[in-house]
Amino acid sequence: MTSDAGFDVDVLVVGLGPAGASAAAAAAEKGLSVLAIERNAEPGLPVQCAEFVPMMIGMQLPEMGDSRVQAISEMQTFIGGEEAVVTPDFRGYMVDRARFDQYLIAQAQKAGAQCRFATSLRGLDANGMATIGDGETVKAKLVIGADGPRSRVGEAIGAVNTELVETRQITLDLTDPHAATDIFLNAEIVGGYAWLFPRGDVCNLGLGVTAEHKARLKPLLDALHAQLVAEGRVGETIIRHTGGLIPVGGLVGPAGMLGETAVLLAGDAAGLTNPVTGAGIPSAVMSGKSAGVAAAGFVAGDADAPGDYAEELDDIFGPSLALALSRRREILDTYRQGGLPDKGDMRKSWIAFPQYWKKDAAGIPLSQTGQTLEATQAI
Ligand SMILES: Cc1cc2nc3c(=O)[nH]c(=O)nc-3n(C[C@H](O)[C@H](O)[C@H](O)COP(=O)(O)OP(=O)(O)OC[C@H]3O[C@@H](n4cnc5c(N)ncnc54)[C@H](O)[C@@H]3O)c2cc1C
């Protein structure tokens, strides 16, 4: 595994979700020696996702292996008991997330990355020395932190996601085929929303709320489940449960140094999930690829590569993250002031409505960038 004297490997990638697998593939394709570690024992499992990816993911991933389950053509948004507001042409795919991640990991392995499972990052010291698995130490020229919302790599460079949404999701039988992502907005779902995403003859039904309202998840999900059973849309039996954290505070890091070792964060570790929709798969893939390419630049002697990577992420994701963050803050302020958001507030806080897109965080009319990113980032 030795590349140059003093270093065991060019790049250590921590986490093999979409960001880490994409980073490992890109770095290995550039000829770097790559060790990628994943704490889970099996690639892609357990799944903690609602499994929707927008059509535009095809720009980064023309192939997705056999992970596509069904096509999505539109989004339906329900506010309170009102009729659905239909957003036509909201195209994408429901994927089998385990197969999706497995496909990306296989690409990394094919490119020459060494991928180890059931192997956690235990520590990363101020000199960039990593301790992994049972105590083995690894010295890399560059470490890519793709280890999700509570990134240990991020912690090592002082870049931590502080705002997180808690989620709960169940998988149920779906009575009739459905080609829309359904979104349920309701003042009780503080700092989040509920979703029904169809997946062939089953569906993922879930919701997310601010961490302090975690206790609401179960009763709210039980109530929505009961309502949809009564409407004849879904089955009573719960096939699977999942959940997980979603970072919603915007970009953190994403570049730093530990001694001579450069550190880059990608995907959820860098806070790239959209603070309103919670969507993070496309940005994880995109940032992972960019981190892998930046790693190659750094290893080849370009000391500016980490800073350029940070700038690139800010250019690509900055406007849509800033807009989503300001909408999220506005609706949370309503609760903080002791009120409840009304339907107008909820429309302003959801991507289906023109009110959402009117202005950016600084009050400037939104540019094309924001509209483009709507498609790449929205659930
Ligand atoms: C319930 C739920 C539903 C969602 N639905 C959608 C959706 O429909 N569409 C969408 O686009 N996004 C969705 N998201 C968000 C999406 O799942 C994430 O944005 C995406 O997985 C980010 O990819 P990532 O590679 O950055 O992180 P992850 O996929 O979280 O991968 C990080 C990996 O790092 C590993 N790891 C962590 N710590 C260590 C360690 N110390 N050592 C070794 N390995 C470690 C973890 O085991 C994990 O495999 C959802 C999230 C949740 C929680």
* Number of H- or I-type helical stretches: 9
Query: CATH first level of the largest domain: which class?
Result: Alpha Beta
Shape: globular
Distance between the termini: 40 Å
- Would you tell me the structural class of the helices and strands? alpha/beta
CATH architecture of the largest domain: 3-Layer(bba) Sandwich
Number of spatially distinct domains: 2
Task: Name the beta content range.
Answer: 25-35%
Beta strand count: 18
| Overall average residue pLDDT | 92
Low-confidence stretches: 365-379
Give the helix level as a range of percent: 25-40%
Superfamily at the CATH H level of the largest domain? FAD/NAD(P)-binding domain
Radius of gyration: 21 Å
Heteromolecules bound = flavin-adenine dinucleotide
Please write the string of helix (H) and strand (E) elements.
EHEEEEEEHEEEEHEEEEHEEEHHHHH
List the topology elements.
Layout (H helix, E strand, L loop, with lengths): L8 E6 L3 H12 L4 E4 L14 E3 L13 E5 L1 E6 L5 E3 L4 E4 L1 H15 L2 E3 L4 E4 L4 E4 L3 E10 L6 H5 L7 E10 L6 E6 L8 E6 L2 E9 L6 H14 L9 E8 L7 E4 L2 E5 L15 H19 L5 H32 L6 H6 L5 H4 L10 H10 L2
Parallel strand pairs: 1-2, 1-11, 2-8, 5-13, 11-18
Antiparallel strand pairs: 3-7, 4-7, 5-6, 9-10, 10-11, 12-15, 12-16, 13-14, 14-15, 17-18
The chain binds flavin-adenine dinucleotide.
